[in-house]
Amino acid sequence: MKRLKIGIIGCGLITQVEHLPNLLALPELFEVVGVVDPSAKVRRALAERYGVGTFPTADDLFTRELDCVVIATPDAYHVELTIAALGRGLNVFVEKPLGYDPADADRVISARDAAKRVVQLGYMKRFDPAYLALCDLMHRHGGRLKAVNVEVFDPDFWPFTAHRTVHLGDDVPENLIRENGSKRAEQIERALGFAPSRDGAKGFAGPLCSSIVHDVNLVAGALAAIGETIAEPKGATLFDDDAGVSAIATASNGAPISLNWHTVPKLAWYSERLTFAFEDAVFELKFPSPYLNHQPTELIERRSDGLHLSETLHRPSYEEPFVTEMRAFHAAANAGRSDKNTVEDARRDIALLVAFARLALAHEATP
Q1: Residue 189 CA from chain centroid, whole number
Q2: Rounded distance, CA 188 to CA 43, Å?
Q3: Neighbouring-strand partners of residue 113
Q4: d(CA 41, CA 58)
Q5: What is the DSSP letter of 90?
Q6: Each residue's pLDDT tens digit, 49-97
Q7: Which residues of 281-320 are buried (b: 16+ CB within 10 A; e: fewer)?
Q8: DSSP character at residue 124
Q9: What is the pLDDT of residue 367?
Q10: Do β-strands 271-278 and 281-287 pair in parallel, antiparallel, or remain unpaired?
Q11: Would you place residue 263 in the very low, low, confident or very high pLDDT band (cuts 50, 70, 90)?
Q12: In a 10 Å sphere around its CB, with 0-12 CB exposed, 13-18 middle and 19+ buried, how is residue 205 labelled?
């Protein structure tokens, strides 16, 4: 397959810790043409460390010969940059969330189809070996789903990147910071149909769209393995100042789905558990912090024969999902099609998150 010329737009934490080093470690698949960031400090540091070309704007990068781009900017720029890249005939890997509004996903779908290019979302956990094994176990089990529970406690990145060299862009021009805030506010208001409070906007953009979006996507994929879907959102609560979210939905067979994500900002501990309960079996995933590479997710299978309970720990491999997703992107771009982590998947996820936000903030929408 063809070696692809790739550029990266946005060089924050996820690019510095994952995307840039991972792409450089795949020289048989990718040639990194350059990276984009508005911070001169970040550009200088990455050029010195990795020897890559750097650019202050995406338009500067677009003047170079490229096959594809990674978009890892602040979320409010994802849609417009994806459409701009597609307009130049490039394949796109874009971080989650794609955006805040399902209508924007529709615009991306139209641009992708017109360009006949691939757009892949950065849902790396869909490539986790234990998650893939879970989907296979559930498919082969074939019983009726009783309940799904998601529980996440997240201190953010600081305990898991302290040993890494990360350069902070504290010299980003003030006008760009204001522009990002304005774009985000406008997109959130358009998505929800009203202007939420400060805490409401932070809760929608953070705990929902930036964090539990991963788990919504994982649950949707696992349910698809048994012919079910997330059918109807029932309720949601956003806790003040970006502290967390609790939401309830039902699966298409009526099974309850409970989703909880909360911050533990002063505790160096991360916990993410997804549990799928059947009448005669329970399958549980325990994810490590995403910033700890090659740390295997635990898949625990619980069954019983009468009073005899057995627990099986599955560890399919130490393969790193952040690397696997880039291998998959390379294969999809070369094939000209992708059936994993598509814009349609992102649209479904965004629509559910908007519905949860409207339920949680209904009191703010009332005149």
Answers
A1: 22
A2: 30
A3: none
A4: 17
A5: -
A6: 999 999 999 999 999 999 999 999 999 999 999 999 999 999 999 999 9
A7: bbbbbbbbbbbebeebbebbbbeeeeeeeeeeebebeeeb
A8: G
A9: 62
A10: antiparallel
A11: very high
A12: buried
Helix (H, G, I), strand (E, B) or coil at 35: strand
Distance CA 103, CA 116 (A): 20
Cα separation of 327 and 333, whole Å?
Answer: 10
The pLDDT tens digits of the residues spanning 224-261 come to 999 999 999 999 999 987 789 999 999 999 999 999 99
**Could you tell me the two tokens for 358?**
């409207």
Instruction: Name the CATH superfamily for 4-124+324-348.
Output: NAD(P)-binding Rossmann-like Domain (3.40.50.720)
pLDDT given at position 64: 97
For residue 288, give every residue at least 6 positions away whose Cβ sits within 8 Å of its Cβ, in sequence order, or none. 270, 295, 296, 297
Which element (helix H / strand E) includes 299? strand 298-305
The SS3 call for residue 55 is: strand
The answer, yes or no, to whether the previous bond of 97 is cis (omega within 30 of 0) is yes
Q: Summarize pLDDT for 307-335 with one digit per residue, the tens.
A: 999 999 999 999 999 999 999 999 999 99
Note the pLDDT of residue 243: 86
Q: Where are the domains of the chain?
A: 4-124+324-348, 132-320+354-365
Q: What is the DSSP string of 312-345?
A: EEE------HHHHHHHHHHHHHHHT---SS-HHH
Count CB neighbours of 45 within 10 A.
20
Q: SS3 helix, strand, coil % of the chain, rounded to 5?
A: 45, 25, 30
What residues contact residue 110 under an 8 Å CB cut-off, 6+ apart? none
The residues pairing with 194 across neighbouring beta strands, listed in sequence order, are none
Q: Into which CATH architecture does domain 132-320+354-365 fall?
A: 2-Layer Sandwich (3.30)
Q: Residue 365: is its pLDDT beyond 90?
A: no
Q: What is the pTM of this model?
A: 0.96
Q: What is the DSSP string of 208-265?
A: IIIIIHHHHHHHHHHHHTTT--EEEEEEEEEETTTTEEEEEEEETTS-EEEEEEEE-T
